[in-house]
């Protein structure tokens, strides 16, 4: 399950950059900044969720 989640995230992340440039008409530099901010933010929240799961022992 974890493999499919990571695979889906990496596929989505590769399209996110193009989406920012084409649909939202961002230039290369702001699109890169937005992508990096998203990556850092999602990594931070993944760590928070990991700690919550570790404390509770389950996701639900």
Q: Uncertain runs with pLDDT below 50, 5 residues or more?
A: none
Cα distance spanning the termini: 16 Å
Q: Tell me roughly what share of residues is in helical segments.
A: over 70%
N to C succession of SSEs: HH
What structural class do the secondary elements suggest? mainly alpha
* Rg, Å, rounded: 15 Å
Overall shape: it is elongated
Q: In this structure, how is the largest beta sheet organized?
A: none
Strand content: under 5%
Number of strands: 0
How many domains in all?
Answer: 1
Keywords: Membrane, Transmembrane, Transmembrane helix
Could you explain how this protein is built, in words?
The protein has 60 residues and is mainly α. It has one domain (2-56). It is built from two helices and no strands. The chain has helices at 2-22, 28-56.
Which features characterize this protein?
60 residues; mainly alpha
Short structural summary:
Helix content is about 85%, strand content about 0%. It is mainly α. The chain starts with a helix and ends with a helix.
List the helices and strands and how they pair.
Elements: H1 2-22, H2 28-56
Helix pairs in contact: 1-2
């Amino acid at each position: 399950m974890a493999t499919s989640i990571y695979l889906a995230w990496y596929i989505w992340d590769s399209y996110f950059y193009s989406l920012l440039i084409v649909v939202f008409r961002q230039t290369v530099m702001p699109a890169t900044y937005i992508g990096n901010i998203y990556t850092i933010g999602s990594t931070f929240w993944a760590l928070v969720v990991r700690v919550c799961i570790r404390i509770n022992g389950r996701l639900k």
